[in-house]
Amino acid sequence: MFSFFKRVKTVVGSELNAMLDKAEDPVKMLDQFMREMEADIRDAEAAVAKQIANEKMLQKKFEDAEKMVQKRQEQAVKALEAGNEELARKALEDKKIHQSTADSLKASYERAKQDADSLRVKLDEMKSEYNEMKLKKDALKARAESAKTRTKMNRAMSSIGGDEGRKGFERMEEKVLRFEAEAETSEDLRSSSRSLDDELDALDEKDAVDDELAALKKELGKE
């Protein structure tokens, strides 16, 4: 019934780390330990309740036997006072039987009470052990989660700072520089082309003005 203590000592002791090392998920393993402890405590509580009920039952029977002893004693006295010695004898004989029963029940009741008290103490110890383990479990779970987070962060940082990541970044940087160079080149070509067009347009405009000026001079006889 109290195999729980053996398991608790194993969990609390140095074997805990070895058991966790073998577990794929330490957090799940710790939760399983706690569920087993809770089940043992429930079994122990049921056993204690049953023992207490047995104690109270024996106590009542013992008290009832004691009352019968007292009752037969009083009846024997009344019978003698009434001059009925035979009835008094019967009352005393029955008193003796009840006294023997009371003595036996008293011994059984005292043993049951001792057992119940002992089980109560053990149950309290179990609950104390459980609370201690619960605190330890919470601390270990927090440490496990922290370790997992650190591992993920370290892997992420290693990936970011690794050669592969750095080379990829450099390739993207070169591509951006190439795009910028191509944009600047196309802009220069566009500017160059625009300057030539402007000069040609200006030449056409000059020729038109010269032709108009010549026509006007001819009209006025200035040639």
Features:
93% helix, 223 residues, PspA/IM30 family protein, 5 helices, mainly alpha
| SS element count, helices | 5
Q: Strand share of the residues?
A: under 5%
**Helical content, roughly?**
over 70%
- Briefly note the structural class of the backbone: mainly alpha
Q: Uncertain segments of ≥5 residues (pLDDT<50)?
A: none
Cα radius of gyration in angstroms: 53 Å
Shape: rod-shaped
As for the number of domains, it is: 2
Distance between the termini: 137 Å
Q: How would a textbook summarize the main sheet?
A: none
- Element-level helix/strand string: HHHHH
Number of beta strands: 0
Give the rounded overall mean pLDDT.
Answer: 80
Question: Can you offer a commentary on this structure?
Answer:
The chain is mainly α. The chain folds into 2 domains: 4-161; 163-223. Helices cover 93% and strands 0% of the residues. The chain has 5 helices and no strands. The chain has helices spanning 4-12, 15-22, 26-81, 85-161, 163-220. Helix 1 runs parallel beside helix 4. The protein is rod-shaped and about 190 Å long. The N and C termini lie far apart (137 Å). 9% of the residues are buried. The model has no long low-confidence stretch (mean pLDDT 80). Belongs to the PspA/Vipp/IM30 family. Residues 139-208 are annotated as: Disordered.
